[in-house]
Amino acid sequence: MAEKKTLPFAYERKNVWDNKKDEIQAIYSFADDYKHFISTCKTERECVRFVEEEAKKHNFHAFEEKKSLKAGDKVFLRNGYRNILLAIIGKRPISEGVNMVVAHIDAPRLDLKTVPLIEDGDMALLKTHYYGGIKKYQWVNIPLALHGTVIRRDGSSVDLCIGEKKDDPVFTINDLLPHLAGKSQGEKKLLDGVEGENLRLVVGNRPIEDKDLSERIKALALKHLHDEYGIEEEDFISAEIEIVPAFEARDIGFDRSMVGAYGHDDRVCSYAAYRAIRDFAGTPEKTLIVFLVDKEEIGSYGVTGIRSRFFQNALGKLLRLQDPSAPEAAFREMFEKSFALSADVGAVINPMFKEVFDPVVSPRMGYGVILEKYTGSRGKAGASDASAELMGKVRKIFNDNGIIWQPGSLGKVDEGGGGTVAYYLADLGIQVVDCGVGVDGMHSPFEVISKADLHQAYEGYKAFLKDA
Questions:
Q1: 330: which of 2, 293, 326, 335 fits an S-S bond (Cβ 3.0–4.6 Å)?
Q2: Residue 353 has what pLDDT?
Q3: Taking phi first (over 0 means left), then psi (-120 to 50 degrees means alpha), and beta for anything else, what does residue 80 get?
């Protein structure tokens, strides 16, 4: 068969596995490190704790410990327990702009309601409220774990992580058996088959021995929580407890080329970004920033979302510590001289649902990190829409550094869409474009990514931080 030819000036996507054969061992090794992270960091608090502890081992210091800043200094600033910003100070003044990668560490899940524990149908149940965009039917009949922090009556705190160890109990949400589901579910639309109010976690069936108590099954569950963790029922009101899948990341495929896990969106980009700044060698020309944020899945609102003032305040603190006499105008102009990647995942073509994708533009698994000029819905609603100049700049950085990348869009024009943190960065005058790892089964309890794409995101973020 004759070899296929293409014009030398035609565009053709490159497959990472074909073009990075000498890096396959590095690709698999990096993915092993990532699997440990994604298996153990299933909440925002756990992600921040992990990054802070690891960053300290690589000579990053708390900003509060610094009296001045010089080129090469590595610092971090934390916003409570759900945001963290890492910085390496460059040779040039911060007022001349920074290079940054911003990713989010929240993921779709179930949260406990503030008064969650009930007894119904001879079971103790925990009522939940789903967080982010989920298909509710995907969260039933799978093993689930409790992760979170409880502030007790006396002000002390206790961390919970139940369901991850081999000898831990797990929890679940029971679906209706098919024998009785004909009318109750069979006549509904797929997305309505399980209602949000029915996402109730089964946590007990045994009654307490005292037969004079009401709701004896709930009572035994409460007694366990009190005896094991010192938690009273009122303490749920001052708690952050998340319900997440109780399984680890696993290799997928005979070739182990993919990773299946909960929370790839967007912790796969968060980990790649964190590693890019952690592994950065030498002193950069411009200051480098990696910011891991919360609340993206619900609109970026709240004190730990990117809409909050923490991001601006953090960069202001860095600027003032480096130059206490810097005027307000220098702070505003810093943003206008900065460049950013909004490091968020994209949707790769799913072979079972090809009809919702544009086969020419939509990204493909194994073809590198995705460069997405705009996101948004339908008429580009909610998109920042990167300029031609910025697209050209990032293309050149990636090409010059041998990064395998691909353009992308979120499905066909009228199928839907979604947004990222990019337009909040753009609001500050920062030149920003979306760039992330392709995911299949996005927002499900078990998403899939290619190890090759993960590694190219890591290499791409490093190149951008260095050269933007």
A1: 326
A2: 92
A3: left
CB 319 within 8 A of CB 94: yes
Q: Terminus-to-terminus CA distance in the chain, angstroms?
A: 44
Q: Name residue 232's amino acid.
A: E
Residue recorded with tokens 């014009």:
7
Strands 438-439 and 346-347: parallel
Using 70 as the pLDDT threshold, list the residues of the chain that sit under it: 1-3
Q: Write down all domains in the chain, each with its CATH number in brackets.
A: 16-107+262-467 (3.40.630.10), 109-245 (2.30.250.10)
For tokens 């009122």, name the residue.
234
The span from the CA of 367 to the CA of 223, in Å, is: 53
Rounded CA-CA distance 204/427 in Å is: 49
Residue 417, strand partner residues:
377
pLDDT at residue number 1: 57
Q: How do residues 44-73 score in pLDDT, each as one tens digit?
A: 999 999 999 999 999 999 999 999 999 999
Residues 6+ apart with CB under 8 A from 388: none
Q: How far is CA 374 from the centre of its chain?
A: 19
Q: Residues 388, 438, 39, CA angle at the centre, nearest 5°?
A: 135
pTM above 0.90, yes or no: yes
Report the C-alpha gap between 333 and 321 in whole angstroms: 17
